Amino acid sequence: MRRIATASFIGTAIEFYDYYIYGTAAALVLDDAFFPELSETAGTLATLSTFAVGFAARPLGAAVFGHFGDRVGRKAVLVVSLLMMGLSTGLIGLLPGYDTLGVAAPVLLVVLRLVQGLGLGGEWGGAALLAVEHAPRNKRGLYAAAAQMGSPVGYFAATLTFLVMSSVLGDAAFDSWGWRVPFLISFVLVAVGLVIRLRIAETPAFAKVAEERETAKAPLLEAFRVHPRELLLGAGMITVVYVMFYTAATYCITYTTEELGIPKNDMLLLTLVAVTVLGVSTYLVARWSDRVGRRRLIIGGTLFGAVWGAVLFPLLDTGDYVLIAVGLSGALLCMGIIYGPIGAYLPELFGTRMRYSGAGFSYNLGGVLGGAAAPLVVTALAENYSATVGGWFMSAMALLSLGCVLALPETRDRDLDAV
After folding, report:
1. What topology does CATH give the domain 2-418?
2. N or C: less crowded end of the chain, CB within 10 Å?
3. What does pTM read for this prediction?
4. Is the dihedral of CA 218, 222, 225, 230 positive or negative?
């Protein structure tokens, strides 16, 4: 189980590192590198739109990788998803900007972002299943935490890498080439991840289905037919996770550095504090869910998010570093409370024949609803009204997720082979 947990964790950590460095770069430099002829607001929106493109590709990646994950096996698909994600990320670091390639630069950026999204769309479902399908029934939340911890650790590493580069280099050097270094590091990380993932075994649950020749011919269609409520309500349930995270991790950095005039390095340090809160809460709540159940904790997280969305931007607007750290940490604490149990909860909603497809598609559909839309909507609301109105949007999305989880059952004691 230690090897399985390590393989589950290391892959998601690398993949989320790849994904999050794009979000950080989008907030800091990509508008100048790839959209220099647009106004400041238009450049921000254009950059965030390329960010959204990756999310739009994730359900497609979940469908494709889920199909083969449910028919061929979890292990082989996870190797391919890691390669796609890592190589496309590294190539972004090599991509010349608008000054060199003209309009071809943002076009190629969108293409690579699509490949990133496809790769990550296949990653989470497989990593979560790798842990959950190997774990004892009373420890599924604990071992699924390995996959979930990849997100905060990957983001911490991404933020720290940008902070180091920004601190070591001057603004001109960082904006010119320094921002590319975190992307190039991905080439090394993907090699490490491949070595670890190639050493793991197939999960017992899938091996049993394959041995009995009961794999589904069209697993995603079967998931829609057998588990339509779980698939759609699961997507709605996880939406608030993406809203909280990508608003705090992407738009709030842009807002505080450009609108409030807070130095870039200071904001990266404050973000590291918030990400630490995310990591600790994700692990503790995932472990706790084995004792008290997944659903009850997720309900608490959505209620907390409904309150915190309304107070986030007033805390940021004070300009006080302590209150900014509290605001960002509260948003990511909300995410951790929900995100921790999700690693076991979503897979437990689906049968083994279509578990990869169902859990992965539901997870990534929630990403489109929350992660792709949230930074764009909050930016537009802040531009036309105020940032506080954007916070109200976050609260509304939390209430939407609350309604979805209230319509779902508890799954802690389920036998995975009997779903």
Report:
1. Growth Hormone; Chain: A; (1.20.1250)
2. N
3. 0.85
4. negative
